[in-house]
Design goal:
By secondary structure, the protein is α+β, with helices and mostly antiparallel strands. It is 48% helix and 10% strand. The protein has 16 helices and twelve strands. The strands form four sheets. The protein has a five-stranded mixed beta sheet, with helices on one face. The protein has a three-stranded antiparallel beta sheet with strand order 4-12-9. The termini are far apart.
Length: 400
């Protein structure tokens, strides 16, 4: 099905305000056109999978749906990495498997759990700032005070980034993630160049001054510096905005559903399992592309070999066929068995345990300290960019 003036908004590259309510369009795609063809003026022709089973199967089948030609429909995106090793997320097994093994040790759940006191101290300090700033009854931007700095701190911790350098990452992340057209690529290319140059200097620093971090481990293991640079890119570009998106969306959902919030307040042990339900509904990474290595057929539609295929995680995570008639509703006791917010299989997010722990501690602390909090979602502003859905600003009141 080719996009027409009538249905072109069913799938589009979103950003900013258009991220506010994509859910009806997703439902239409699932029900009427689950293998949706898009003929885009600059991104070319690609197909969009929107049902859970189709996306789940594609994510796991790396031989048929390859990441090695980039995660966007634009085939030119790999030019960003000319002269550099491709990031981990743009490798397929067996190369991906070998590289992932090198960096997975510090991010196992048991190692990550040891970070709990550090995360809790950081969150408590930031919540103290929120309380102080909102003392006069005025709303405070919770993204600026807490939701953006928290993942930046965690990424910097794993990479061994000095505290004085951490602020630079937000600008690089914003430029890279926000690029949704060729007109935006100039600022993204500049951010890439700065990020790569910084990574190279960090690698050299760790050769003579190693620390307790992943970059030092890779340098000690004599890993190709180009691949280390690709890993630093993956951590910075992929780790910052996603946790911000999860937490901002979670505060919105818990403001809208007071009944679900009360269940968590009455039993804070429910927060950790409820994080998967919040991940399901927020789906910070809403979609990414793969490349079909052979011709495949889905729902009676043939996708040719070499075609780009967009995997619509945000739609799949709300598919009634998988989660039942209440799929669009928050149920903190649902305990979904499978979600696609972190991908699945070989490309399951390396930082999933970190994100879950950070979200759990943050929500527990907010519910304890500000049980009656509200966020003004209508006044919040969504960040630009077609792949990550997150609040760029979100007004917060601890005591309405």
């Amino acid at each position: 099905m080719t996009v027409t003036d009538t249905d072109q908004l069913r799938y589009r590259f979103r950003g900013g305000e258009t991220w506010r309510e994509p859910w009806d369009d997703y439902r239409w795609l699932r029900d009427h056109d689950p293998v949706h063809r898009v003929d885009h003026p600059t991104q070319g022709t690609f197909w969009v999978l929107s049902r859970f089973d189709d996306v789940f199967d594609a994510v796991r089948d790396t031989a048929t749906f390859s990441s090695a030609q980039g995660l966007t429909p634009d085939s030119d995106v790999m030019g960003f990495f000319e002269g550099q090793a491709a990031p981990l997320v743009m490798l397929d097994p067996p190369e991906h498997t070998a590289m992932r093994r090198l960096v997975s040790r510090p991010m196992t759940p048991s190692r990550v759990d040891a970070l709990a006191p550090t995360i809790a101290a950081f969150v408590d300090e930031r919540l103290g700032r929120l309380a102080e700033l909102s003392g006069g009854g005025s709303p405070v931007d919770v993204v600026e005070v807490l939701l953006k700095p928290l993942p930046s701190m965690l990424v910097a911790h794993f990479l061994g980034i000095p505290e004085q350098d951490r602020g630079r990452f937000d600008g690089w992340t914003d430029a890279i993630v926000a690029a949704n057209s060729r007109e935006d690529l100039g600022s993204a290319m500049h951010a890439f160049a700065e990020l790569f140059a910084y990574s190279e200097s960090l690698i050299e620093r760790r050769r003579t001054d190693p620390g307790d971090d992943v970059v030092s481990d890779l340098v000690t293991a004599d890993v190709d510096p180009r691949w280390i640079t690709g890993f630093v890119f993956t951590m910075i570009a992929g780790g910052n905005d996603t946790t911000t998106g999860l937490l901002g969306g979670s505060l919105e959902l818990l403001t809208a559903r007071r009944d679900q919030r009360l269940l968590l307040i009455e039993d804070l042990s429910l927060v950790r399992p409820a994080v998967d339900e919040l991940l399901r509904l927020t789906s910070p990474v809403q979609n990414l592309a793969r490349t079909a290595t052979v011709e495949v057929e889905r729902a009676g539609v043939r996708i040719p070999a070499g075609a780009k295929v967009m995997l619509l995680y945000g739609s799949a995570n709300r598919d009634e066929r998988q989660y039942g008639p209440t799929a669009d509703e928050l149920d903190v006791t649902r305990n979904p068995e499978r979600i696609l917010s972190f991908g699945y299989g070989a490309h399951h997010c390396l930082g999933a345990a970190v994100a879950r722990l950070a979200a759990t501690i943050t929500l527990e602390r907010i519910l304890e300290r500000f049980p009656d909090f509200v966020v003004d979602a209508a006044s919040g502003r969504f960040a630009p960019g077609p792949y990550v859905r997150r609040y760029e600003t979100l007004p917060f009141l601890g005591v309405p």
